Amino acid sequence: MDDGNGWIRKKATASLNPSQVETTLLQLRERWPADALPLVRLIEEFPLGEPALLHLLAVSSICATRLTQNPETLLWLHQPEVCLAPRGYPEMLGELHAVAGDSIATLDFAALRFWKGREMTRVALRELANVAPLEETTSELSQIAEICLRRVFEHWNSELRKRHGSPAAEFVILGLGKLGGGELNHSSDVDLLFLYGEEGQLTPHISYHEFFNRLGKKILETFSTPHPAGSLFRIDLRLRPEGSAGPLARSLESMENYYSGFGETWERLALIKTREIAGSRELAYEFLRQHQPFIYPKSATPDLLDEIASIKHRIERDLVGTEKLERDVKLGRGGIRDIEFIVQTLQLMHGARHPFLQEANMLKALRALRELDLLPTNEVLTLDQTYRFLRRVEHRLQIEAEQQTHVVPREAEALQRIALSLRFSSSKDFTAALQGRMRAVRPIFQRIVSKTPTTPAANLEIFSDQKRAARAFTDLAQSAAGFHIAPRTRQIFGKLRPVLIGWLAKSADPDATLNQFVRFVEAYGLRSLLFELLVANPRLLELLLKTLDASRFAGELLIRRPQLLEDITRDPAFDQTRSVAENLQRLDAFGANANNLDPIRAYRQRQLLRIILREVLGLATAAATCIELSDLAEACLLFAVRLLGADQITIIALGKFGGREISYGADLDGLFIGDDDRATQKLISAMAQPTAEGNIWALDARLRPEGEKGPVVCSVETCQWYYTNRARPWELQALTRARPISGPLQSEFMQIAKSVWRRAGQNPDLFIRIDEMLERIRRERGSGSDFLDLKTGRGGIIEAEFLVQALQMRENIWEPNWERAADRLRECRVLKDAEAEKLKEAYRFLRRCESVARRYENKAVSALPSDPSEQRKLAIRAGYDSFEAFQREYVDARDAIHTLYERRSRNKNL
After folding, report:
1. Number of helices and strands (H, E) in the chain?
2. Which of 256, 397, 428, 253 lies closest to 335, judged by CA?
3. Are 273 and 287 in contact (CB under 8 A)?
């Protein structure tokens, strides 16, 4: 075999770039080691085939230069174990150690630089030989970068710790962009974030912030320093918070503050590809955990789509230009970035609900979209095939000199070389294929990334203090604390504002509701995420504002724990009631014990909020709400009884608790039967004890024998004697609502209660006594205005209850629940159908009024407010346009109750 010029010229002439191949082969011949396999034989016996090697020399001047500068690299590539099989991280790392040994940082990382260039050449060779799929090429290029970053980080981290000491905080290098996705190309920048765990002081003169920024600077300097052995990688830190103006390294808290307050849509897209590269995996995990709500919002707004479309438009206008739109395979129309934006947009929209989509790698994310049926199969195939094609084109453009270029050349010779390298028969065929692929992508991009019109603004005339309201809206848009608010956040609030004002206009107290909303926003913290959530979920905004208006108590709970709004409303069982058993089952999971009852208190608060939200949203009537409140109270009581070891106490519910009809702010009326006074007192005290979580539920034992003068807990025998010999008529009437809750003596007590109750019902003066009790209650507990006294006034709640209870006692109809008792009176013909329906309708109305009034502060309320402005607010919260409209129905309801009561009284026909 002749190594002469004729052979070289012949091989070069048959290649894609004759002059470059000829020059390279001549230089190799001159420098070829004398004791090595002859160059001609090596080329002709090359394991991947002679055309593969000549292809590399023809299309990559940088690889050709590496080989001529160090012919041993070609001998290395000739080894079948090097060029015929892909390499994983361990194999690459082993090769690096073989090259560099323990002196990797010597001579400014010269050995690492040499290793990196050799590996880049191997990857290019395998891709050009068409034996490496795209995933292999991009993965191996990414692994080369990771190894370089880790070795440099490890060196400087060790050096700085030797000089200054070791901070207690962790540090991690996070990869973004194509490095984060494990999909680098042949000339990618490596996009990085430098993150440390917490602030602190290392020495009197060096803080953690300074230490880790010095570390970041050393890493950056090493990668940016030119060297004869070759470059490492271009590091790009411009994706960090505040870009080039921000510090190189930030703490976890600083990162959270930035993204929650100022994070832009493009930063969401960037963070999708976040991955730990070097340093603490635990810190990387914590960063991703904290920022998951920002990266993957639970509800993506149309603004996100607008902004992504706007970003792409600016890229095409400002960076690409009209002349290159069809030739820029990365940023042009229908290019790689279009495909990435399609996939990332769908990840943003659906990633919170489908963790499978929280994937940094583009092709893997695209497969996930297909498996979740979020993209039609034909579109997935189009995007997948086009992405692979464009990445191959991009690699051909970059392999030449490892420069960051993405534009297909116009020059005929260069265009023809790329076409032939990609195995097209001509540049014309290649250009047609390129344009066809890119044009197939753009319609998909336009379908996915859509725009929505903004909502027109509204005025502030609904507020009594318009200046204060204007300041509140300014604070919402610009932050009252003076912090910068991202333009995206202001833009989203611009769409939220008129919708917000529209709902405030329907509230009973727009000024107070706006103030509560501002406090909720400040407590929520992630302002941009909240605004996006509310814009995307107008029903949630409606619920939030109605709740803030309907209940200051609920508003304060939400302000203390803003996450409860989403936690509760996203529960699939939100539209369902919760029984005593279901509440007990949930309480079991809250971790309460005899020494720590706060979990019960916290559960009670959370469930009260849930009940209010359900009522405000119209998922529960006032009557159903009373049942839910009663069942919640019973479950909390039973759970406390179990934890405190009070199982031997028999508890009998009375009053509205007995009838499962308690409203907001109610105590639990009850009797305690047994002989364990200490356990009873402990239970009562624990139930009423207030903490930061509130109390569990106050127990009221004043209906016991002898009232407040008598012992808190009584024996069965004491109860029997008292009810038989000393009980006053109202105490016997109160037994109408007796209902056993727990304890071993339930049946014994109920037998006594029903017996004395039935005897009391046969008293000929029953109605007179009940009427006297009613008058006494009006005198002692009334407000002085019969009209305002919805509970104790004529035709009020108590009159309706006393009427039904008197009829129950006379007819021996035992039923603790008022409404079911009224139904049974109708079934027994004690009440006519029309009478029963009118009575129930009136009673429901008054109970609903009571519920609305009590719900605001979660406190007992027995009368309407006397202030006209407060009356108007109550009416609006009850669903009326004005107090006058409310008043008409209110008067009708009370008249209906009192008319029936008087009719029965006059006829003496109970």
Report:
1. 42, 10
2. 397
3. no
CA dihedral 218, 220, 225, 226 (to 10 degrees): 150
* DSSP 8-state assignment for residue 318: I
- Report pLDDT for 480: 42
- Which one-letter amino acid corresponds to residue 204? P
Calpha distance 72→114 (Å, rounded) = 12
Flag residues of the chain having pLDDT under 70: 1-4, 105, 300-303, 450-459, 478-488, 906-910
* pLDDT at residue 493 in the model: 84
Tokens of 699: 């127990």
Beta pairing, strands 699-700 & 275-279 = unpaired
Predicted local distance difference test score (pLDDT) of residue 824: 95
pLDDT score of 528: 78
For the stretch 136-152, pLDDT in tens is 999 999 999 999 999 99
Helix (H) or strand (E) holding 194: strand 190-196
Q: Residue 307 has what pLDDT?
A: 77
User: Do the beta carbons of residue 703 and residue 671 sit within 8 Å?
Assistant: yes
Q: Is 828 left (phi over 0), alpha (psi -120 to 50) or beta?
A: alpha
Q: Which of 310, 332, 446, 303 is nearest to 379 (CA)?
A: 446
Radius of gyration of the chain (CA): 39
pLDDT at 511: 94
pLDDT for 450: 57
Query: Which pLDDT does position 910 carry in this prediction?
Result: 47
Among residues 112, 73, 300, 270, which one has the least CA distance to residue 178? 270
Cβ atoms of 666 and 656 within 8 Å: the answer is yes
- Find where tokens 């940082």 sit: 105
How many residues are given for the chain? 910
pLDDT at residue 470, as a whole number: 85
Bridge pairing between strands 668-673 and 699-700: parallel
Residue type, 720: Q
Range 589-595 contact pairs with CB under 8 angstroms and sequence separation of 24 or more: 592/639, 592/643, 593/643, 594/643, 594/644, 594/645
Q: What is the pLDDT of residue 226?
A: 87
Q: Find, among 176, 194, 191, 173, the residue nearest to 270 by Cα.
A: 176
